Hints:
Layout: H1 3-13, H2 16-26, E1 29-33, E2 40-45, E3 48-51, E4 55-59, E5 64-68, H3 71-77, H4 79-107
Antiparallel strand pairs: 1-2, 2-3, 4-5
The structure holds zinc ion.
Zinc ion is lined by residues 34, 36-37, 39, 68-70, 73.
Amino acid sequence: MDEQCRNKFENIIFNKDLCRKIIEYTGPLVKKRCIVCESVIEYQILTLNIVNENKKIINLQACDKYYVCSEECYKIEDIERKNIRCILAVLIFTIMCIFLLITVMTIL
Ligand SMILES: [Zn+2]
């Protein structure tokens, strides 16, 4: 690529007006949203990736991870209480299975 051609190419690539028009046309690519208030947490403009402050929460019941934007949204979702309930359910189920197994073993 000769010097003149490279300058033309850079003028196109780094043209702010063209860049703004492309973004207006395509819009930012939203990658992550808050599960409570639907506000944008992570988005991409062309090759630039922008991440806002967020908190990752793991939902054991759904075997999935979610993102919330703030402490208020975290309190509203209250995943920890749901996770504790899920852990308790698994624990009770396991104890019942062990109890059933011991009962069957003593009978036989
Ligand atoms: Zn939120």
